[in-house]
């Protein structure tokens, strides 16, 4: 079984420090070339290289450099593959990521099912985001994707669409963690519509210049950088625009610990983890001060004007 170490890599010098646009034609060509040889060792899909095209702007670059790729692809939370940090990297090769499609339905004028090839054909962009887990660790990750609002534009949400609910894959034969009742499967998450439509909210298809490794949520996940990591659902199969605020898997499991908003907030502690500081991995100690909205306050604070963020945690 190939480990990620054996997959094609890009040199750190090839990682552009700021956001970059990516050449979608290159990616499609790469996907076609890998079509025959893409299945190595069972269901694992070989990583496809995605090449940068042009710089994108309009969001803050983290002050720390991108985290080591090996760390970001071996220290994961993906409970469908086990609850330890190392389990997803060991087990997620079992996930079949082709064919893949995402059903988009609910309060939209043009419901549709969209295939992974169509998602990969959007103009892709590299976004280097600070990623903060509620367990008080963080990383800096060069994600690749496109803004969720571009996907929403395809289906035309109606005026009744107030929230967006994301449902992720539930494959008992491929996901050993589903046997454990730690969460109510399938894993679901949700955002308020204005949060989902915010330009920072990324439909994510790759990281470190390549398609997503399975343990990081292949073939398509969300990344919402001002919220705790669990709002960023992995391996999405359904997106519903809905009128009522959904209850996510984590809120269902422990509502006092995992509120609907889950904005990174150093002033509101989780019952088990202080949120004042964080371990910027691989650091062992929480020496970094956590920033309000994970450092994206200038972009997103207005979404919460007038709200009590202790009550709406
Ligand atoms: N389907 C699914 N999505 C998920 C999770 C999960 O267990 N299942 N874990 C969440 C949590 S708690 C975090 S911190 C991030 C971790 O993403 P990473 O492994 O790419 O860092 O994924 C989130 N998305
Ligand atoms: Mo998390």
**Number of separate domains:** 1
CATH architecture: Alpha-Beta Complex
> Taking all residues together, what is the mean pLDDT?
87
Please name the CATH topology.
Sulfite Oxidase, Chain A, domain 2
Helix tally equals 8
What composes the largest sheet?
9 strands, mixed
Contiguous uncertain segments of 5+ residues: 1-21, 28-43
Order of helices and strands: EHEHHEEHEEHEEHEEEEHEEH
Q: What helical percentage do the residues reach?
A: 10-25%
CATH class: Alpha Beta
Please compute the radius of gyration using only Cα atoms: 18 Å
Bound molecules: the ligand Nc1nc2c(c(=O)[nH]1)N[C@H]1C(S)=C(S)[C@@H](COP(=O)(O)O)O[C@H]1N2, molybdenum atom
Helix/strand-derived category reads alpha+beta
Strand content: 15-25%
The CATH homology group name: Oxidoreductase, molybdopterin-binding domain
Characterise this structure.
The protein has 313 residues and is of the alpha+beta class. The strands form two sheets. Strands 1, 2, 5, 6, 9, 10, 11, 13 and 14 form a nine-stranded mixed β-sheet that branches. A five-stranded mixed β-sheet has the order 4-3-12-7-8. Helix content is 15%, strand content 23%. It has helices at 24-34, 69-72, 87-91, 116-120, 148-155, 193-197, 249-253, 297-300, and strands spanning 20-22, 52-55, 101-106, 112-115, 124-132, 137-147, 163-168, 188-192, 202-207, 210-211, 221-223, 236-242, 277-280, 288-289. β5 and β6 (137-147) form a beta hairpin. The chain is built from eight helices and 14 strands. The protein has a single domain (20-298), classed as Oxidoreductase, molybdopterin-binding domain (Sulfite Oxidase, Chain A, domain 2).
